[in-house]
Amino acid sequence: CVICGNAWRHEVMKWNGWGYSDSRFLFNKKGQAEFTGKRYKLSGMILPALKDWFEGTFGASLQHKSPATPLLNTSAVQAPTLNQDFVEELKSIGVPFSHEAEDRAFRGHGHCLHEIFALREGKIGRVPDMVVWPNCHNDVEKIVALACKHNVCLIPYGGGTSVSSALECPPEETRSIVSLDTSQMNRILWIDEKNLTAHVEAGIIGQDLERLLNESGYCTGHEPDSMEFSSLGGWVSTRASGMKKNIYGNIEDLVVHIKMVTPQGVIEKSCQGPRMSTGPDIHHFILGSEGTLGVVTEVTMKIRPVPEYQKYGSVVFPNFEQGVACLREVAKQRCAPASIRLMDNEQFMFGHALKPQVSSIFTSFLDGLKKFYITKFKGFDPSRLCVATLLFEGNREKVLQHEKQVYDIAAKFGGLAAGEDNGQRGYMLTFVIAYLRDLGMDYYVIAESFETSVPWDRVLDVCRNVKARVVRECKDKGVQFSPLSSCRVTQTYDAGACVYFYFAFNYRGLSDPVHVYEQVEHAAREEILANGGSLSHHHGVGKLRKEWMRETVSEVGVGMLQSVKDYVDPKNIFGNRNLL
Amino acid sequence: MKASDRDLRGMKDDEFVDILEERRCSSDLGHAFRTFNPQPYKGGPPCSAADLNKALLDSHFLHRVVKEVAMETGSSQEKVMEEAGEILVEMSHNLHLPFIRLMGYTFSKVIKRLFTSIFVNMDGLNTLQQAVQENPVILMPNHRSYVDFLIISYILFTYDIPVPVIAAGVPLAEMKIVGEILRRSGAFFIRRSIGSDKLYWAVLSEYVRGIVRHGFAPVEFYVEGLRSRTLKSLTPKLGMMQMVLEPYFKGEVFDITLVPISISYDRVLEESLLARELLGVPKPKESTAGLLKASRVLQEDYGSMQVNFGQPLSVRKLCEGKINRSYYNLVPRDLPMKPSAEALACVSWLAHVVVGLQERGSLISPWSLMACLLIQEPTTVLAEQGLLWDDLTEKTLWLRKMVLDFGARLNWPGEAPNSAVMSSAISLHRSIVYLKAGRVYLTQEEVPLRRHRISPEEGVFRTAVPVLMLAAYRNQSLHALVRPAMLAMSICITRSTQRDELFRFFCFLQEVFANEFIFIPGNLSQDFEEACLCLNSCGAVYISEQEVRVSEQSSEVITFLQKLLQPFIDSYQLIFRCVCEEEQVQVFTEKQFLAAVRALALKLILSGETESELHTYETLSSDTQKNVLSALCRLEAVAKLRTSEINEFKVNKAAVRRITDALCGKIPPQMLQAPPDARL
Q: Domain FAD-binding PCMH-type spans what residues (chain A) (predicted)?
């Protein structure tokens, strides 16, 4: 391997699952679930309730295992198709590259269920023929020029957390495919304290960006659930959204300036004016272009001082309908905290299953008391109640004031404050839920999440109908066990909300579980669209959702996008075939 | 019941249970006070009638309409809102369990007196019990008698299934005390003619949608709109159907379950009343006093009643590929808007599908089979010479075999000998026919002693009442016979053996008689296919790729089926003739039309000029007359003029003559318009 940066990645990351190699869920010898490693708050803890929940919800059993292939079989990776002239010239400009099987296989997939499932079975499809690691904007310019000259296909690669099949190599591609890994372009080039902006290389990973900015007393506040692994360039090219967008905005609100290398040259604006009336905003050709037009190399982003005070919170509602009504009211009054999320009953139960072993009798007594208060005294039906998690940020006084305002609104919808712990656990769940999928896959349970955005008046309808559709489709497609079908409202806007769905089922007895799962996901998306939901809120289209683009943005819309592509990249050098 | 008996009855695997059996051996009071504990609806908590009304009055939809109406009429919004409140008061149900119990008690007493048994299919009830927990359920019974009205509630109450709210006509609400009892038993009331009253439509549709959205109580309504006076299915009305389905189209519920229910009677309480209404005696207004007067009908025996709960239908599954629900994506949910053409077509199609299933779920009684045969005899023979009992019984058994071959459901008691079954059918229907010295005669009302002479017209009327009753009972079997009968008719009229020619004529007949017999739109080829298979199954025809050929041995099947439809052909031809005859008249009102037809029919019956007098008795039925008028409008031979308050019609005589000619085979089938979905 040519450089140590990529070796680092391999060592700490799983090749066929989510996240760090040292962090995983497993059932220990006593049959208790635990989370290994030291990286997370949950690490090293025993989760006594998880097994019962897991077995009860999915009809799964610890006896029935479906382990993954432990090591990548490099011989299963196709030999690379190399464009020798390109390789020679690349050598001459001194950009590191590799055509080792591991490096290539690692960059040939994202984290869709079908991608991970295949890897666990040791199946490797078409992967890039080589990987290059540019070190800076200039390197990228040179690589793109060479690619144009020698007609090779470039696929930009950031954090590899795509869930839209965006990183899959088109099987019909006959040219040499080169994965352009931006991971070495990970520096903060400058911080401008007067304008509160930072100029950053696009390959930087979310958590590094926040950590480095924190050292200077700043943050971007952009925290997508994947921020441990996803990159700035990836956020820009998929129109990412962060958990705390209510304070900081989504990626399109955060960027001030973008530099992108295209086959036609570099595209960027001439100044950093905060708003311009200069025709359609060219940033919006770049935002969401999903690697089809070029490589984002440098971004100027807004930054904020690190907040003085943070406080989690949670509210229990008697039912989901009341919870949604409360979120709607909060949005109407424009007083949403940094984050406000509403989990449905299934997820509430799930959250409970992830409670770590209680250390003292006192806490378990308190828990019992709380439960008694809510279900018996307040008369909440445990099979209907649901919980909203909150995160407040700012100066202490204002946070407390804000908190009171939100709890007062919640009370009008029958909501009861349910403590900081529940809130914090809710957010922690966000980071470990992807690890849980790997645990499920060890025991015949496959799972996926998908999202949408929807106007307020349709939120309940979309939630109900999509969940029911998933259940019905699973039944129709021969799934033997009842699936988990759950949702949560994760973002509020003036005119609507973002809804996240989770579904999972035990696939024992199915000959082609991935196909069944794909059919169910397809049906669920159809249901979302039929009920007025969008094709995607922040995951993007990739290749997974391409078929619905035309109906989503109209014939003319597709034509517009196509003509931009035709002008910018007439030879389809950026040939990942996403979006269109 | 032995397996062979079951086959004989044509009830297949369904387990029909007589619910009166238990009522006769245990206390009605105990039944009325039974613990009623239905499984709760999973989609949400129960909601009271008051909650429902409040939600309606608070709805954005209603407020939008109120605003519009206030703008249009120039009155204040408060006033319009008040009006809406009044409409709601008149309309809304007030379902109360104690009243269901009271109703149950009274009902037990009454129906035990009227009926010997009430058969209900238990597996249908079991699947319904499951269905009501999952999705909003719409109960869709056919409507043949006022008894239909509460029987479903009664059965559901007995079997621990949530009792429905029921769409009823406002006249019922206006009955003293009874109206209030019905309201508290779950009835809600709809005006008969709403016309273009925007506010009324808004309240009604939002009210119905609200009930469906909440889903905890099933909605029951008659998709046929009215009680069928001929015991034949009526063309479904689409207004209510559309309101009920809209929550699905708009994604407000995941799915809606439709349950077709077929109620069949051995003898219908209102039989003679219905026949008289058809002959032009106006229907008595619903009143409590009238109901009490009618209590003498309670003295008679009405045999058994069968209630067949059909398989629940998923609207979602049925609409797959037929509806683009994203039609509503770009407008507010509560914006009053017209449904798309696609949605309307789908509503109509679904309504027809349900009516079709109601028909297929109906049980055909032995008496109905006998009526099919009796009515084929000339009236004079029936009235004077009588029909040989042995002939009738032999033919009835022949017909029984045939309808079973056609796949119909029969209600032929398996325990008793066949002859006993048939003679008890005759004695149950002594108001229509009677058996004397081995012959069957038509029953005619006795002439009051005070009057020595009756006018010839009155004579016709006296005969027409039992004949129309007989026709109505024949109609109970028609759904099982009409497709093969239309094919038989096509064969007889065209004298063709070519499949495509017969298909064309078959389609033409369906088109002309679309108001008489209910066919599912777009189902022509399947209907034709079914007709071929039926005739083939009883050996009446041989079928090949190109041909449908009559077999020599079984010509009696073809003859019987042709004669079955002949009255309809004759009536239509006569009325066509009547429309064309009036030389100078080009434009007429419905009233004039009905009078002219009636006069012509009477004249012909009295002159004895027509070859078969009996057939023209059905021409006297106002139902037939109105159907012909609708058919002519549909076929664009008559145009509706909307110049005045009263509808006027303008006739295109050439077009009518063309239909006349086509109907008697003067126009070769290949000249007829090609069917819209010719897929042969």
A: 124-306
Amino acid at position A200, single letter: V
pLDDT at B273: 86
Instruction: Give the bridge partners for B441, in sequence order.
Output: B434
Q: Distance (Å, rounded) from C-alpha A552 to C-alpha B550? A: 57
Q: Do residues A16 and A119 lie in contact, with contact meaning Cβ atoms separated by under 8 Å?
A: yes
Q: Please, what is the average pLDDT of chain A?
A: 93
Q: Which residues pair with A258 in a beta bridge?
A: A299
Q: pLDDT band at B601, cuts 50/70/90? A: confident
In this prediction the pTM is 0.91
Instruction: Give this complex's ipTM.
Output: 0.89
Of A435, A443, A444, A500, the catalytic one is A500
User: Pick from A498, A491, A502: which is nearest to A448 by CA?
Assistant: A502
Give the per-residue pLDDT at B4.
Answer: 42
Question: Which tokens in the block code for residue A86?
Answer: 């390109």
B166 with B221: CB under 8 angstroms? yes
Indicate the average pLDDT of chain B. 88
Contacts of B251 in chain A (CB under 8 A): 458, 461-462, 465, 530-532
Distance from CA of A505 to the nearest CA of B (A): 21
- Residue with tokens 């008679």, as numbered in its chain: B300
Residue among B248, B304, B306, B295 at smallest CA distance from B124: B306
Query: At CB < 8 A and 24+ separation, what contacts does B515-518 make?
Result: B515/B235, B515/B627, B515/B630, B515/B631, B515/B634, B516/B232, B516/B568, B516/B624, B516/B627, B517/B232, B517/B233, B517/B478, B517/B479, B517/B482, B518/B233, B518/B234, B518/B235, B518/B236, B518/B352, B518/B355, B518/B356, B518/B359, B518/B479
Dihedral (CA of A179, A184, A185, A186) sign:
positive
Looking at chain A, the whole-number percentage of residues with pLDDT higher than 90 is 86
* Rounded Cα–Cα distance for residues A281 and A300 (Å): 16
**DSSP characters for A30-70?**
TS-EEE-SSSSTTTT-EETTHHHHHHHHH---TTS--PPPS
B549: how many CB neighbours lie within 10 A of its CB?
12
In this predicted structure, what is the pLDDT of residue A247?
Answer: 95
Share of chain B above pLDDT 70, in %: 92
Burial of B434 (0-12, 13-18, 19+ CB in 10 A): middle
Q: Is B421 helix (H, G, I), strand (E, B) or coil?
A: helix
For residue range A330-344, list pLDDT tens digits in order: 999 999 999 999 999
Q: Best interface-test mutation with A: which of B257, B324, B325 has the largest number of A CBs within 10 A?
A: B325
